[in-house]
Amino acid sequence: MTAGQQRAWDRHWSELGDSVDALPEGPLDAAAWFGRRAPLVLEIGSGMGETTARLAAADPEVDHLAVEVYKPGLAQLLLRAEHLELSNLRLLRGDAVVLLREHVVPGSLAGVRIFFPDPWPKKRHHKRRLVQQGTVELIASRLAPGGYLHLATDWENYAEQMMAVCSAVPELRNRYADQPGGWAPRPDWRPVTKFESRAHEEGRGIHDLLFERR
């Protein structure tokens, strides 16, 4: 980590962050952690936190929970949260599937975002991709009725896999099923990160998918 990231970690992690492995058994008490009851959105794989922080700042009535394994990314997100004076953001380090399975109550999430997950582009590594049938079924079970699952990727074959997997989960409905390919329009509120900019430079299109819990 950079010196600035380390300082942010030292100042804020004990209050705003925790490890998935260190959580007590049973459901996460989000109301106690945030100090209020509000809709809860989970972001899986927040990276360096640019999108996460800006979306939390733009939607103060919603609580935002980011789960990420990369410590410098979480530290950078703490820096951003400090700069924006965010009170509606909490961070978890660890496995999102463990979090969902062991610590999130069914029907409790207003939304789940997975933006530009690791594409594992080689075919023999596709089994390592996050968006698989079992994971999407687990996410769907944790969404409240009307809650959303928003996915984005710059790898076309991963986008096709996402579409096939999400469409096969009966609890989910594609909000843009009537659009060509079922793809959602790119939301203008999502910041263009360096990864998305690089994808454009390398000629890869961006695919958004937006499903909701029936």
Helicity level: 25-40%
Number of strands: 8
CATH topology, what is it called?
Answer: Rossmann fold
- Quickly give the CATH architecture: 3-Layer(aba) Sandwich
Measured by DSSP, the beta-strand proportion falls in 15-25%
Low-pLDDT stretches:
none
Q: Would you tell me the overall average pLDDT?
A: 96
How would you describe the shape? globular
Gap between N and C termini: 42 Å
Widest β-sheet, arrangement of strands: 1-4-3-2-5-6-8-7
Largest sheet: 8 strands, mixed
Structural summary, described in words:
- There is one protein chain.
- Helix 1 crosses helix 4 (71-84) and helix 3 runs parallel beside helix 4.
- The protein is 37% helix and 22% strand.
- The chain has 214 residues and is α/β, with parallel strands linked by helices.
- Strand 3 (63-68), helix 4 (71-84) and strand 4 (89-93) form a beta-alpha-beta unit.
- It contains 8 helices and 8 strands.
- It has an 8-stranded mixed beta sheet with strand order 1-4-3-2-5-6-8-7, sandwiched between helices.
